[in-house]
Amino acid sequence: MTAKVSTCVWRLSTDLIRALDERFGEPVDAYVNGSQTWLRDDGPSGETIEWRLHPAAGFRAPEGLSHHDLFPAVAFALASETEPPAPIDALWDGLEAYPAYGDEIEPVPLATAVTTALGIGPDGTGQVDHDRIGEAWEQARGRLSIVDALFAELG
After folding, report:
1. pTM reported for the whole predicted model
2. What is the per-residue pLDDT across 62-82, written as a single tens digit (0 to 9) for each?
3. Residue 75 belongs to what domain range?
4. Among 29, 47, 123, 128, which residue is least crowded by beta carbons within 10 Å?
């Protein structure tokens, strides 16, 4: 039996990238697959929440940028109203926030807490099977939208 995890999901927008930059700053970690991650104690009772900006299906880093430089470069371009190194929807699909260390938080209190932290309410909230989504993404060799899979699980 696979455990479901409470989660909140946002569709990608320039406002979302700006809010992440203004409220959270640079990610604490970035991955070659394009994921950008923040770990913050934003849970309803101070639990650590993992905020993950998921890569677009088939992600490819723009020429000349490492995965560590990607979010800062895009955020700077949006803040300075210049052209980002690539269209943002070619880089990421959306954002997910969920309890980082297996804490059990109900979806509604999680949604309230993360809305307060980010300043933008999620487009979807509920419980998902991360294992199933991760396996599907790996089988598709990264050519699957994790955000689409999250929304499909949320119904």
Report:
1. 0.95
2. 999 999 999 999 999 999 999
3. 5-154
4. 29
